[in-house]
Structure to design on (212 residues):
């Protein structure tokens, strides 16, 4: 069983990266959740036919490679972009939860609440994208300020000093505005990158047809 651990971990990580629960993935490949759970725990010996079926459902392939070629193959796999969409969605949900807490705890004056709406829209915008490792790291960096904001107990008493740039409330509003700006820039960057990738993948005849 220990010899299968690396394969089992690869299956489990690929399933989670696609945002699939054991139940939903089991339905997809025709295996009960209980059996899939045993496979991922290593408590049953996986059949070759099941391994191939599971791998292909996760956009993976089972191949035998010469032992001498293994280091080269592992190097290529290590450098291959990973699908990080599922953990990215988890980060976005965490950021939205933190934002809602700030919204209710900070008592920002009405003329400044639009900053929350800006972040709400920006989070919805980045939620619809696909993420590789680079995009995931950039997303974490963009939402990090929200996750590290602590609301002091005395903050509501500082609201009337909002026009004072040194007040904690004013600093909070500026910080949230930067988060909204960074999320918009991230979305625009990723959308542009996806559009460029789609363009490169289109067949030449399609590009020629567009000129007509």
């Amino acid at each position: 069983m220990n010899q299968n651990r690396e394969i089992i971990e690869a299956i489990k990580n690929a399933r989670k990266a696609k945002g699939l629960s054991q139940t939903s993935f089991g339905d997809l490949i025709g295996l009960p959740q209980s059996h899939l759970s045993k496979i991922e725990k290593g408590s049953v010996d996986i059949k070759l036919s099941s391994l191939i079926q599971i791998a292909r459902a996760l956009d993976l392939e089972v191949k035998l490679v010469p032992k001498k070629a293994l280091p080269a193959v592992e190097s290529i796999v290590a450098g291959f972009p990973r699908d990080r969409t599922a953990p990215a969605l988890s980060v976005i949900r965490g950021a939205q939860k933190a934002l809602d807490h700030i919204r209710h705890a900070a008592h920002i004056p009405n003329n400044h609440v639009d900053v929350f709406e800006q972040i709400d829209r920006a989070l919805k915008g980045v939620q619809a994208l696909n993420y590789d490792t680079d995009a995931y790291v950039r997303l974490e960096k963009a939402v990090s300020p929200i996750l590290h904001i602590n609301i002091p107990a005395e903050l509501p008493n500082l609201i009337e000093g909002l026009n004072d740039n040194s007040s904690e409330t004013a600093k909070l509003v500026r910080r949230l505005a930067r988060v909204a700006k960074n999320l918009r820039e991230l979305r625009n960057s990723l959308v542009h990158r996806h559009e460029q990738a789609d363009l490169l993948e289109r067949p030449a005849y399609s590009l020629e047809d567009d000129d007509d």
The first helix runs from residue 5 to 17. Residues 2-79 form a domain with the 434 Repressor (Amino-terminal Domain) fold (CATH 1.10.260.40). DSSP finds ten helices and no strands in the chain.
